[in-house]
Specification:
- The two termini are about 35 Å apart.
- The chain is built from ten helices and twelve strands.
- Helix 1 links the parallel strand 1 and strand 2 (about 30-35).
- The longest helix is centred in the first third of the chain and has 25 residues, at about 95-120.
- Helix 4 packs parallel to helix 5 and helix 6 (about 200-210) packs across helix 8.
- The strands form three sheets. A seven-stranded parallel β-sheet has the order 3-2-1-4-5-6-10, with helices on both faces.
- The protein has about 325 residues and is α/β, with parallel strands linked by helices.
Length: about 325
Amino acid sequence: MRRLLVTGGAGFIGCNFVQYWMKQYPSDRVVVLDALTYAGKKEHLASVADNPNFCFVHGNICDQPLVEALMRKEGIDTIVHFAAESHVDRSIEGPDLFVETNIIGTHTLLKVARQLWIEEGAVDDHRFHHVSTDEVYGALGPNDPPFTEETPYAPNSPYSASKASSDHLVRAYNRTYGLKTSISNCSNNYGPYQDEEKLIPKTIQRVRAGEPIPVYGDGSNIRDWLHVEDHCRAIELILNAECAGEVFNVGGGEQWSNLDLVKLICQKIDEQRGTEGSERLITFVEDRKGHDWRYDVDCGKLMGLGYEVEVLFVEKLEKIISL
């Protein structure tokens, strides 16, 4: 029986993970710590709210006394760290919050984990799993091979720089203090509960409302799309493996340019409504500053743990549009 602290568990990926984990491991204790900022909503956890093995705490990961008291009270032996500021545009407009949450917040968790798990030996075994992004590797050209776990870091936005910094801190706590850590660097996620600022839900919302769909630059920027269910399964594999100190890339194997993806959504909504012409809503806008052109990750290392993509992109996208 594990006792998990899931930070950011009311956010998009976090809430999906909490629901997945509690279904797979009903005897485990799951404690969510979330600051409930714009992307975190307590109602995302309504399906598990009445489970006696679930607990929700409203609080900030930067609050060290709160984190320590919570971990002591609950006997936490596993941290799954989702909590982060993650919107690139917001990081360009206001990077300070990204430094505070993504770097200082992660370090706060690491400090408490080290104190309880290493210095005090409060639990028999432990794991600190840090959920990160493929954006730490920078950008790929059209013919570049996918990122591997050995690709040098080259972050290009305040967001990705803050995540790269937190990755380095996690690695350092493993190498210096012996904290049992793992890191996953994932590609673009999609699925239930995603914030409406993100490309897929924003496009769906704009098409339904008949409003302009903003597309940066010429729309040629390419992303790899990973369904959140596959991401949850990947984290499960990592948590169940003897892989302290290891890093794993997590991808969905679905490369789409932003423009082609927006056109696909328009097409699918038109098919469902029996209409046509939604592509006319596409509006090209000034490109994002420092906009990375392409991401792609090699998941070979994770496949060695048994990972495979189970969710078909177009099929799942159609279901999301139907909701």
